[in-house]
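Hey team,

Filing this mostly as a record. A colleague (T.K.) asked me to run one chain through the structure pipeline before their review meeting, and I want the input and output archived in the tracker in case anyone asks later how it was produced. No errors, nothing strange. Just documentation.

Input sequence:
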Amino acid sequence: LPALLMEGVAIVVSPLIALMKNQVDAMRQTGEDNRVAHFINSSLPKATIEAVKSDILNGHTKLLYVAPEQLTKEDNINFLKSVKISFYAIDEAHCISEWGHDFRPEYRKIRPLIDKISPAPVIALTATATVKVRNDIKKSLGMTDAVEFKSSFNRPNLYYEVRPKTEKVDYDVIRFIKSRPGVSGIIYCLSRKRVEELTRILLANNIKASAYHAGLDAQVRSDTQDAFLKENIDVIVATIAFGMGIDKADVRLVIHFEMPDSIEAYYQEAGRAGRDGKRAYAVLLHSKADSGKLKRRINETFPAIDFIRRVYDHLAYYYEMAMGDGEGVTREFDLERFCRTFRFFPVPVVSALNLLTRAGYLDYKDEDESQSRVLFLLDRDELYRLDTGDEEEILIRALLRNYGGLFSNYTFIREDDLMHDSGLSQQAVYEGLKELTRRRILHYIPRKKVPRITYTVRRLDSKDLVFTDEVYADRKEEYKTRIESIAGYAEEAKECRSTFLLRYFGEVADHDCQHCDICIGRKNKSIKTTELVSKFSV
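Output structure:
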């Protein structure tokens, strides 16, 4: 509403493409003009981005959604300098805090970028922030004198339960879902492998389920999300890659097959149930082994300083990086090969690289998307004499119109540009390029997500590396506290679940919820914990 009423355009910083798309779609449904809300991100072809900028300059657009990475691009900065900005809204603002559960380094750059573009009022919004995280958000955004509005963390329509895992846990989940035909639900697992396994089991038992994780093709993930929103799928089995940006009000059930590593993560994921205000269930499946596994992650996430130094040294051997060299150099990183070569385990190596990144010695990105590339294997004369099908000819012409140097070097391309120019679908462009590669007309290297490491400073002697308390000791203690809190939630069956969650976020409960497993257990000592949820009806 403020964006619509104020002069200029509001800039909404949002972390995910799916989240932007959902919010823009929802905004466009409120009026006749589809130009009122737009987003700019890496999924858009150049022509679409230019059209968006034109709508903004002509005053049609009141809300512009951008990822923080887009704000760092010089052409976007220069464009936004020419625009009247009404205010900045920082969505999912807990991502800005290094003490939060979902920290994203790009969010720390937002305040300097705002100052560079054009100062304007700033609002930051989050549903999962402790007092410490809220203070860090305000400090990072330069909002030290900001007014703070805080609604209750209480969700009275959510029925929380911690259910012990049994040897027949898969069967228990199936029975629970089947007792509520057509129920809309999300099941969270920690690994992609477990997601795939459980999805197959649910499908084999005639439950309309689908898997969702970051290892799936982007189009598959998008189709799965749409099918869930349209209720063609009842149950999504997912890693944490699913959820942020899902605006489905009637999710009746969220099951955590394994414990997340913080109360914040659990509250956010469980809170995707019952957004329509009607009764919904948040069930955490738990075993002592789960708690033990989670507590072991403390030392895996914060390995010994000597181990971090060893990883740093071996990385230099891996890249043949001489002492004093390397500043600004970026290399692809094959984690499996690195660990095999130097006999390391992957998890602590990744943790060491993340800590070296926090300390400022490296910049490690575990999934940096490389752009697609094309090189023509035929010269122009051979190409023009070639007998090709209609779609192949359209695709070749689109390549030649959009890009130069295709006959001499591999050239970076965007499939979205080819789609827009040729009128072909995304799948047709991809299949067409693969077919042209098979016929040795060109060589197409599709984009893929690959880890990359950049040396932000020259290579040092590892004994000179410094890890401040803020980088290591304080952060390790904070992580330990978060894990102990979620373990306490699962194991200490004394306090009302809602009261426990409210206290964690700094809120005092007026009364217990009266309908979680703990409260019902108090009311009727004869009810076994494993039978509690079956006593409820959706």
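Quick notes for T.K.: The mean pLDDT is 87. Residues 430 and 515 are 52 Å apart (CA to CA).
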